[in-house]
Design a protein that fits this description.
single chain, alpha+beta, Adenine-n6-DNA-methyltransferase TaqI, Chain A, domain 2, 2 domains, four-stranded antiparallel sheet, 12 helices, 18 strands
Length: 487
Amino acid sequence: MVKPRSTLGPEHAGQTRPLATTVALSEVFAADMRVDASAYNILAREIVAGLRNTGITLKPLYGQFGFCAYASNAFRFRRIYVEASHGTALFSSSDIIDLRPEPSGYLSNKLTRKLAALLIDENDVLISCSGTVGNVALAGARMAKAALTQHAIRLRAPDADTAGFIVAFLRSRFGRPQLVTAKYGSVVTHIEPDHLKSVLVPDLHPLHRIEIGRAFVEATRARDKANELIDVAGQELMLRLRLPLFSQFLRRDNRNTVSVFKLENRFDASYHSPLTDEILATIRALPGGVTETGDPLFASEIRPITKFRKRIYVKHGGIPLLSSKQLFQIDPIDVKRLAKAAHIKDMKEIALLENMILVTRSGTIGNVQMTPKYMNGWAGSEHATRIMATNDIAAGYLYAWLSSEYGKQLITRYSYGSVILEIDKEMLSSVLVPLLGTADQAGVARLVLQANGLRNEAWEKEQQGFRRLEEILTLAAHVQPDCGLQS
């Protein structure tokens, strides 16, 4: 049997990795007679071999003798959606890794069978198991008691710190390749809870596990706190503007007659929505008055991104380039990296800056993000338009308004296109923003800015946990002779 070289320890470009390996018949039997090459992924085999050679005991992730005794992905169930007041929030497999997870809908409490079996417990380890396999998150208080789709696995650890440690390992370069190796399927890939029994996790000293795990638990709590602050900022904004609940507009008549003088060269019915017209009339009647997003009072520049067509990518290092979807994720995976030397000029246009407001402009319209500090200097794709706020207070206030239900409705009304929807710079610049007194605007903005600071704090805690995991495994590698972990 050919033993592939381990790549644990520092990753280095140019290292030769074998393109083939020999698989023992006993391994085929242990893998439930799987004969697809992906089940014996060379990188994952190298990682496991390196972990074994450290001398650290390895335990299965799941099973009778594993770290976790309970794992489940939900049964297929009929989804009957109702209003939030009569239902239980449902999160999809993509929602679990969002910086600000929002339910995809609310399941009927009365008509959903075995609803209790779908619910998430705080500190559950959530793993996407269908389609995109291997997204991992720790469930915080915001997700607790919500339902989870059958496309994600709930893995339950004996305590919060152990759950945090498992998340750290599975999101690291030591764990995720093992998860991906277990997947099966030609068109839509899957993993099942039983596949987690083959994922091997180093049984570190309890103090080390607690140290790493607690960093991820604290990071999850910091993000939950950040989302609470954003919720409060939104509530404060509506209260100070004295705007009615957005849901009150949804119950009104959807029919509308449009005068030829009000067409504004737009003949699509969505632009002349009676819902939008009522919202605009309500906002324009506010005592503080209104302005537009492009007003220099709030924005020094609204920057659309031209398509930089020639992109040179590198495997290691480089500048992380986030897609419009990855901008909203906790720790994006499979991030493309731009070669620094080839894209120095592009960075003047595509770079992300702290507290920059990002609005998706293509496909899914109107998702709003404020760039946290740790993304400073990264790059974003052309599918998100940048708003360069005049100052931090303006940035916080703009985010609170544009990310509200009112703000999103006013953004999406401009969208055009039949297959892929778009909005442009001028349209985003024209979105109305209601005004408040200076003190009231600052009060709302500071809540948002505090939330953005907590997101950065959460990121730093997790990076600290990753570094500690790397240090412990690397130290074990140097203690063991010829373990294959040294660079």
